[in-house]
Amino acid sequence: MKSDNMRESSNVEDRRGQSSGSYGGRTGMGMGSGGLGLLLQLLLSGRGGSKWLILIVLAFMIFGGGFSLTDMFSGSKTTTDSQIIQQEGTQTGDLTDAEGEFLSKVLASTEDFWTKKFQEEGRTYTPTTLVLYSGATATNGCGVGQAQAGPFYCPGDKKVYIDTSFIRELANRYGAKGDFAMAYVLAHEVGHHVQNEVGLMDEYNQARQGISESQANQLNVRLELQADYLAGAWANYVQGEGLLDQGDIEEAIQAAYSVGDDTLQEKNYGRVMPDTFTHGSSEQRTKWFKRGFQYGDFEHGDTFSGSIDI
Ligand SMILES: [Zn+2]
């Protein structure tokens, strides 16, 4: 991405380097990729006193909040209310490190794009705040953000949370290299904010009431694919501004592919379980991103009616 002359956003909170020692007292349930296994172990062992723990973990999994890029690890970003402390970061539009500066510029371009798009619809866009953190950080409504949860959007406080070490993880663990891979990740999370701003998240939460788990998963997939579409629409804008480098779109497509549910499950569990998909397959995610890139509008981004296999 040709980011040299792009402006930085003023909506960045830099919490990196702040102590996360206050989270030492959390329940100790790392709900990372091994979390479900641990839960099963507890259920099977039936040890006295573990029941309450199981209930708490289940509550975390159900009410955890937050929409992440992959969700494979998202259970780990939650904890009890008593452990949530308010952290105020440095408000800055002048980050000095390359990673922070790049993300701040990408964020600024999402602000320019969505402000324009909302205006066309007679609406006003209120930008999200990007929180950069390391290790763990408090959210308002989504428990404690944990680095291993990956980037996520918290609808409660309308902020996007990114541990900048994820940039290296994206390249090394997910095989998605290049600056535009990370730009796509941020644009996807901003896409969730756009969904929140237009009231779609409220509708989504209402629609989730009283439906089965697999139906809820399907609904979640539609929400996630739309965030991919919105990221694609933003990429269309970036292209129009002449800011794309050769290979950028391929980097984003590779990133969308690498966080598809089937690809992640194959990698983590050695098998694919379509019923448990929450974000869509690699093919679906890349297709909706490409569609957004093609049209760059709201109109073609309806992932809620009709087939998601386009
Ligand atoms: Zn998402």
From TrEMBL:
> Which stretches does the entry tag as region Disordered?
1-26
Q: Name one Pfam family in it.
A: Zn_peptidase
| Annotated transmembrane regions | 23-44, 50-69
Any keyword Protein biosynthesis? Answer: no
Q: Does the keyword Methyltransferase apply?
A: no
Biased-composition ranges for Basic and acidic residues? 1-17
Q: What is one cellular component GO term in this UniProt entry?
A: membrane
Membrane topology qualifier: Single-pass membrane protein
> Which InterPro entries is this protein grouped with?
Uncharacterised_pept_Zn_put
User: Mind listing the UniProt keywords for this protein, alphabetically?
Assistant: Membrane, Transmembrane, Transmembrane helix
Subcellular localization is given as:
Membrane
Q: At the top level of its lineage, which domain of life is listed? A: Bacteria
Protein name, as recorded = Putative neutral zinc metallopeptidase
- Organism encoding this protein: Eremococcus coleocola ACS-139-V-Col8
Organism taxonomic ancestry:
Bacteria, Bacillati, Bacillota, Bacilli, Lactobacillales
